[in-house]
Write a structure and sequence with these properties.
alpha/beta; seven-stranded mixed beta sheet; four-stranded antiparallel beta sheet; 11 helices; 15 strands; binds pyridoxal-5'-phosphate
Length: about 400
């Protein structure tokens, strides 16, 4: 497709205007929203006010007068709307890793006669690491991690499995699990489900209540645009609230933190999943970023995400680039909002793309990810990325030794 055709697609799309609500550097084609969302307008001003006026002038009184103490629940309830969850089931706290630990512990304690956490071999590593950590803490009689290839998951659901822990969108190839079907299959065998929505929240329509999901976690800094290291969230279905126990029983999850009672008594509901004092600066940035979703129809967001990724896949197929294979499913119903390709020189190619203003990322061993955030990516970005990729491959500029050097963060 020629550049004008891509521009025309942007002109006729009502969501294309949302890009104006982000502060993106001119000349950069930003395709890393799956890793760190772009900066929404209004965040800087809000943080400036928070620091100068609220913290600077009101000091410790801010916990009450600005209700900082209520922020994890307020932000949690705003996120709940994007998950298809009624209020009171989502709390904003900590990182995904820490939240996984809390929820996996809960699941194991609720399933006292079962001890296995079942997961997928190529799940995001931190998910597996946290399960391993919990298993080594509890010992093999209480907890074991079993991870199998995706195609063996359903067969592996047996009466030893306490909880099935899966990520809806695979971080490497962008392949999508069907939450409803898998949750049903797990429940039929008495298995609880814990879904990681890191690459889902803000970009895929979700119905956690309707699908009877037990637990979920997700990310504040990817498609929700909350900023680097923004706090994560966790969801626990209402029906589990009365029996839920979690081991990180810090004072913020106490029924009355300011009673300073020497004995722990959990707060009601999902509030008990707080451990320590919430980071108000980071959570406030996420709170502002969530304004973008206020009047947004997530089905429309998904439509635009599919159109963007499809345009990229189609343009790529038309080019028939040598040595490039597309890892992401071409069926839109089976993919999230990214397109991953493989090439034996993927690292160097990713660096050459970035040097020419197309920001992508690399995942070992040989994957380049092009993430399309429907809130700010345009069809023009698809055109530009395709154009630069085909030039980098044909002029072999990626062979420049400067592009061979590894970096700490890829
Ligand atoms: C990004 C991501 C994480 C990040 O975990 P943190 O502990 O918040 O750093 C976890 N799981 C998946 C699937 C991810 O994509």
């Amino acid at each position: 497709m020629n550049p004008e055709a891509f521009r025309e697609m942007d002109r006729s799309d009502p969501l294309a205007r949302l890009r104006e609500r982000f502060d993106l550097p001119a000349g950069t084609v930003y395709l890393n929203g799956h890793s760190l969302g772009a900066l929404p307008l209004g965040v800087s001003e809000r943080l400036e006010r928070l620091v100068q006026t609220e913290w600077g002038k009101d000091l410790v009184a801010g916990w009450n007068v600005h209700d900082w103490i209520g922020l994890p629940k307020r932000v949690g309830d705003r996120i709940a709307r994007l998950l298809g969850a009624a209020p009171g089931q989502v709390i904003c706290a900590d990182s995904i890793s820490v939240n996984l630990f809390k929820l996996l512990s809960t699941a194991l304690s609720m399933q006292a006669d079962r001890r296995v956490i079942l997961s997928q071999q190529d799940n995001f590593p931190t998910d597996l690491y946290m399960a391993e950590g919990l298993a080594s803490l509890l010992g093999p009689d209480r907890c074991r991690l079993r991870s199998v290839p995706a195609e063996r998951l359903l067969d592996a659901l047996d009466d030893q499995i306490a909880v099935l822990m899966l990520t809806q969108v695979n971080f490497r190839d962008g392949r999508l699990h069907d939450i409803r079907t898998i949750t049903e299959a797990a429940h039929a065998r008495g298995v609880m489900v814990l879904w990681d929505l890191a690459h889902s929240a803000g970009v895929l329509p979700l119905e956690l209540d309707e699908w009877q999901v037990d637990m979920a976690v997700g990310c504040g800094y990817k498609y929700l645009n909350g900023g680097p290291g923004a706090p994560a969230f966790l969801y626990l279905a209402q029906r589990h609230h009365d029996h839920a126990r979690q081991p990180l029983s810090g004072w913020m999850g106490h029924a009355q933190p300011f009673a300073f009672d020497p004995v722990y008594e959990p707060a009601g509901g999902v509030q008990r999943y707080l451990a320590g004092t919430p980071g108000i600066l980071g959570m406030t940035a996420l709170d502002v970023a969530l304004d973008l979703f206020e009047d947004l129809d997530i089905d429309q967001v998904r439509e635009r995400s599919i159109a963007l990724t499809q345009a990229f896949i189609d343009a790529l197929a038309a080019l028939r680039l040598e040595g490039v294979s597309v890892l992401t499913p071409t069926d839109p119903a089976q993919r999230g909002s990214q397109v991953s390709i493989a090439h034996e020189k993927s690292w160097a190619i990713s660096q050459a793309l970035i040097a020419r203003g197309v920001m992508v990322d690399f995942r070992a061993p040989d994957v380049i990810r092009f993430g399309f955030s429907p809130l700010y990516n345009r069809f023009a970005d698809v055109g530009a990325a395709i154009d630069v990729l085909s030039r980098v491959l044909s002029d072999k500029s990626y062979l420049d030794p400067a592009f061979a050097r590894k970096k700490k963060v890829t």
